[in-house]
Amino acid sequence: MTTKATRTFYSTPSPYEIKFGYYRGVRRNSHIFVSGTTAIAVYSSGATSNLPSPPPQIQFPDDARKQTVAAFQESLRAVNALGGDVSDVVRVRMYVARTEDCGAIGEGFRDIFGKKTDLPEGMGAEVIQGKADEVGVVATMIVVKDGFVEKDMLVEVEVDAVVDDNISNQQSSIM
Known about the structure:
Elements: E1 7-10, H1 15-20, E2 25-28, E3 31-37, H2 64-81, E4 89-96, H3 102-113, E5 138-143, E6 155-162
Parallel strand pairs: 4-5
Antiparallel strand pairs: 1-2, 2-3, 3-6, 4-6
Helix pairs in contact: 2-3
């Protein structure tokens, strides 16, 4: 008889989590999945009161790089709360509202997850052995056709992490 894996959930007062009934993150065994996250100021949204919620406040409405950093920082709060660390992140996806913001969003990604090691020069692919606590992820950036649910949202990110329970993880400080 096999036992069913347990799940641990992480929730925020995001108006979208409340309205649509999903969690910011879920951990099942060693895997952590963080749902699409934007630069919404979740704790200023009023979403936890019984009063009508004001529109969500988008942080940095005209700055794609800062929105990217804020969205990844919020995603990493979920990873940390579920027992992971920035070094456990293995994949990110970035959904972009405007093609012209791809460069700034890439810079925001690099601020948080960019390669910390120098790669050898040349044309050939190479396998590089990373250290257990080294940050290194695979990434995808996709431009969405009609934008997001709020016009000031410039980027939405998803984060996947795999926690190696044999290695003691220290909670990372989030900028």
